Amino acid sequence: MKRRTLAALAVSAAVLGLPATAVAHAAPAAPQPGAPCPPPVEGALSQVADDAVLQCSGGRWQVYAGPYPSSDRWLSHGDGLDLHGQGMRNPEMLSGPWTGIPQDPATTCRAEQTAVVTAGKVGAPQVAEGEPGQPLRFEVLPVMFSIHLDGDCLWQAG
Predict the structure, then answer these.
(1) pTM for this predicted structure
(2) Residue 9 class from Cβ within 10 Å (0-12 exposed, 13-18 middle, 19+ buried)?
């Protein structure tokens, strides 16, 4: 009797687990120098674990050669992307309207930014978070100090 119960439980668990695996989506691979990058991210910048900046150029991720990375297109992945804005010198991300575009239907794009409120003071974080698989539209503040972009998302100005 115990064997039948255990067998039934094992079959039930396997059947219940099928839909989850059937709808699961693999996260896009993190950018690596020389690895291919998909056409929608052409021209975008991204960071890798050692804080090196990569650019999608000619269908491949290449080490960014410029002295100060600044772009109107960024790709976040894994643990996200930390950038600074016009509240500091050499901003990596400029103020204005931005859109986070999920690169996977299960991905949620999230942006958490802080802005300079007075000389030497940064305000409380402001969070914008989308729905899974849906674009997130938000404003980067004119004196944004830092921003954390989360999710496997392409971030575009405009």
Answers:
(1) 0.81
(2) exposed
